[in-house]
């Protein structure tokens, strides 16, 4: 699917779902992360089966953890699943367990465990708009080895922390003039993935840094919260949404930002005069796959941990340097009469996803399908229980008499 066709298809799908929402109740009410929103509106069965509302990862997690369908445009509906680019935090796990597993207020509040499984792999690209001092478009590659003569990952760190604010401060860039850093003003999984990379790639800057504690923090969805007093440097400008970021970068010289791959024409991913290389790798699908491949499939020893299924990639050992998984957060247990056929509809979609039915669409939207090994691990753990781990949806032993109420 071409970039323009993908955008059009997503828009049509969103329109169809809005019409359907007014006409009848969907079987599955869901939403959350905006990074994969275009993809999900392409592959989720539209109309009476699914509705997907892009709210951001944090709101999506909250909706499924609290069974609150209001952010997804529905009233008094079960939220069986939501999309998130960031892992469920230990605090979220603790609060959920206290309310719905270990100490529920009533037996009806015992909803059972909350699952989280990777969906697809993604990159976070670095779009920039700056010609050389001679006025020419020139590729920009931030090397992996620190250097005083060519751009390197240390320069990426300095740009996004505000320590570097002029292109002339980047050795060997052949550019000069003010740097304008664009950042997502709203909570964004893309911001969190960028922060995870910067946390691993950037040395602590010390007490004079603009950053809180002089370091980047992981899984922080609101970019401004990385900075002292939640205040970004004066050369930073807020934008909203992935498309908003992409468009804003290319409206004026000197700008640089970060954006997911889905809103970028596929050919442009390899154009280092628009999207920077990191360690010599452009954010192409193949190079992102190299990075994703470094993540080991969970084993029996660690399958019960969130980080095994949603690892922080930091700086991958190979391939494009800013990569990660986006995920589905899914309730394991349900109770009551399923008049909307919610659970069966959800599990059918998930089985299709991990059977590879949507791989062509995933690739066309510049995301990376999970490897066969990862797909099999997800299916055997969360859908079929052939792993014997007892973590599958509707496990009869775990869910005996408990679950999130269906409505």
Automatic annotation (TrEMBL):
A Pfam family annotated for this UniProt entry: PBP_like_2
- Signal peptide start and end residues: 1-25
Query: Which key words tag this protein in UniProt?
Result: Signal
Keyword Calcium among record annotations: no
Give start-end ranges for the coiled-coil region(s). none
| Ranges of residues in domain PBP | 50-331
Q: Does the keyword Signal apply?
A: yes
Q: Which domain of life is it from?
A: Bacteria
Family to which this protein belongs: Belongs to the PstS family.
Official protein name in the record: Phosphate-binding protein
Q: Which organism is it from?
A: Bordetella ansorpii
